[in-house]
Amino acid sequence: MKCLIVEDDTHIQAMLKTLLTIHDWECDCVLNGLGAIDAFAHAGKNKEPYDVIFMDIMMPFMDGMEALKQIREIEHDLGIEEEVKIIMLTALNDPDTVFNAYYQGGASAYIPKPFDQEDILKELKKFGFF
């Protein structure tokens, strides 16, 4: 399985990468939404799409909500029928943020910070990855 970790906190990034590589996932990491768009487009162009994207919401240069929107637009423009699973990660655990991530952005799941490894594995199991 292949994932993209979009997170400006390098400690969280490292924790996610360690957890997933232990389970034989291939992980790429970027620090913001701009990097996410580039990595997503590059993976699609090379016919090596991501199975899951872990996306922080609050990041510099381009936040996770804008990156989510643009990734969904790329999928639509390319005629991709099965959307990549995008799990939003954020300290913003308020109803407006959740509503925007799911219903306006097209997120697949939402995990509030702080989270632990079990929270991540639980979400991945819901999608049938374990």
Summarize it.
This protein has five helices and five strands; from the N terminus they run E-H-E-H-E-H-E-H-E-H.
Structure description:
- 27% of the residues are buried.
- The chain has helices at 10-22, 33-45, 64-78, 95-104, 117-126; strands at 2-6, 26-30, 52-56, 85-90, 109-112.
- It has a five-stranded parallel β-sheet with strand order 2-1-3-4-5, sandwiched between helices.
- The longest helix is centred in the middle third of the chain and has 15 residues, at 64-78.
- The chain is 47% helix and 19% strand.
- With 130 residues, the protein is of the alpha/beta class.
- It has one domain: 3-Layer(aba) Sandwich (Rossmann fold).
- Helix 2 runs parallel beside helix 3 (64-78).
- The mean pLDDT is 90.
At the fourth level of CATH, the homologous superfamily is Response regulator
Write down how many β-strands occur, each being a DSSP E stretch of 2 or more residues.
Answer: 5
Helix residue percentage: 40-55%
Based on CA atoms alone, the radius of gyration comes out at 13 Å
Indicate the CATH architecture: 3-Layer(aba) Sandwich
Biggest sheet, strands in spatial order? 2-1-3-4-5
Please identify the structural class as seen in this structure.
Answer: alpha/beta
Domain count? 1
Beta-strand fraction estimate: 15-25%
Describe the main β-sheet briefly.
Answer: 5 strands, parallel
- Using the coordinates shown, work out and report the CATH topology: Rossmann fold
Count of alpha/pi helices: 5
How are the secondary structure elements laid out?
Layout: E1 2-6, H1 10-22, E2 26-30, H2 33-45, E3 52-56, H3 64-78, E4 85-90, H4 95-104, E5 109-112, H5 117-126
Helix pairs in contact: 2-3
